[in-house]
Amino acid sequence: MTPDSLRAALRGVPDPDWLDTALRRVTAEPTEITRLFPAAGRRCGRGALPDAPGWTADDAARVLLLTALPATTPATPTPSTGTATRPSGGPCCAPCRCCRSAPPGCRCCTTAIRTNDTRLVAAALGPYARHLDPAAWRQAVLKCVFSGVPLAAVADLDARADGELATMLAALAEERHAAGRDLPADATDLLHRLTAALPREA
Amino acid sequence: MRIFDPHIHMTSRTTDDYERMAGAGVRVVVEPAFWLGQPRTSPASFTDYFDSLIGWEPFRAGQFGVRHFATIALNPKEANDPRCRPVLDLLPRYLDKDAVVAVGEIGYDSMTPEEDEAFAAQLALAVAYELPALVHTPHRDKARGCERTLAVVAESGIDAGRVVVDHLNEVTVKLVRDSGCWLGFSIYPDTKMTPQRMVELLREYGTDRMLVNSAADWGRSDPLLTRATGEAMLLAGFSDDDVDKVLWRNPVEFYGQSGRLDLSDLEDPTAVDPQTGNSILRGGS
To answer: Which residue ranges does UniProt annotate as crossing the membrane (chain B) (predicted)?
Structure first.
């Protein structure tokens, strides 16, 4: 998805003039983004964009605002977890979209993984997860299982899952069983896949 | 009975409360920024608090099907501490957020010159950011505090219909009613206002511009006293429609003036504005 295709997908939003003006203002005066960024949902709506699968109008507009910043802007705004307002489902804010291109150690993403807000955890375990070292990645996967985030949210799950993750999952399964509870089905499936693939100890 | 609690400090409450509130019919809450009991000593701790009011707390509420909004401000008590005054400069960043539906709690605690200044500055922010204002009235010297509050509100130029003056009682109700501001009543186990006394006030002054809240916080308080007030109204002969007006439609109308009270996805289809068909209720505006 390129900025041009996002912009094309936003043509049908309720107030396209607002977005055009906002993009020009951000380019001319970068500090304006502090007021325009949070207003994006109110002005462009929050519905899914038919021409940009997986994107909502507010997320797309916010990403375009970020891309409209001049390259010399010292730092893009660091939206806090506080931009989350939706009580159900889905990435909650443009920064989560930015997880796709966030640099290693991105403060927004590492903070998101530390939260207990399952929307933020899920978003940060998309493409950003490639920057996590194996130990941090396993902990994050286990946190998903623990807090009910579907493992489908985790990028490269099967490629990175290893014997150590299997050991950790098995231990969690044992704890759950001792308490009369089960692992979520997707975690049980992953554990089965891992134990089937691993060489058996002699 | 559908209930919108227009003033409750859920940060100080447990998930048991959310569960009981949802069971009692509470669907929407507004959480004003306020004093946490322990005085804060730097603006940074306000930043984290404000973030939690628009991030973590709505997420927590959502687990119980409760929609959560916030009002943001430097509260009157801490406005007196010079170390906290720079919080005023942080507010604009928050007043643009979707989940922020008013400036508040502002107003008076001890009626000091520092409180005068913070109060006026934050009313000006409410005007500039096109938000309603939630005004706390002092525990001590309440009647004179109320008079002074209304004078500052009038001087600020904000439309009285965009201001709620809160924590009212028998002594202050008429003053605020005559001002054109909205009237907030905090129903407490045995102090500020009780369900029975509230029913008497509704009998005497009617249901227009009346807001009933639990103001539940870290002190002795009860998040279900909104529901108890609705039940007391019914017992006293008020109709279901009267109860719905006080406990739902009035707060929707007041905070709807922010243009940010997005109640879409709530189960009740009547949450859509019948006049505009818009799922963002805009109240009287």
So the answer is: none
Disruptive mutation site among B98, B265, B282 for chain A (greatest number of A CBs within 10 Å):
B98
Sign of CA dihedral B255, B256, B261, B263: positive
Sign of CA dihedral B255, B261, B267, B269: positive
Tell me whether B93 touches chain A (CB under 8 Å): yes
The answer to whether A30 and A67 are in contact (CB under 8 A) is no
CA distance A60 to A48: 10
Alpha-carbon distance of B86 to B184, in angstroms, equals 29
Note whether B67 contacts A: Cβ–Cβ < 8 A. yes
- For residues B150 and B154, what is the distance between their CA atoms, to the nearest angstrom? 6
- The reply to whether residue A117 touches residue B99, judged by beta carbons under 8 angstroms, is no
Q: Which amino acid is at B250?
A: N
Cα–Cα distances in Å, from A17 out to A12, A22, A52, A67? Answer: 11, 8, 20, 18
Q: What are phi and psi of B170, to 5 degrees?
A: -60, -30
Nearest alpha carbon to residue A116 among B237, B56, B219, B159:
B56
Work out the angle at residue B222's Cα, subtended by the Cα atoms of residues B218 and B223, and round it to the nearest 5 degrees. 95
Quick check: A84 and B55 in contact, CB under 8 A? yes
Structural domains of chain B sorted by starting position, each given as residue range(s) with its CATH number in brackets: 3-281 (3.20.20.140)
Contact predicate A142/A168, CB 8 Å: yes
Residue type (1 letter), A45: G
- Please tell me the least confidently modeled range out of A60-64, A98-102, B119-123: A98-102
Lowest mean pLDDT among B148-157, B190-199, B225-234: B190-199
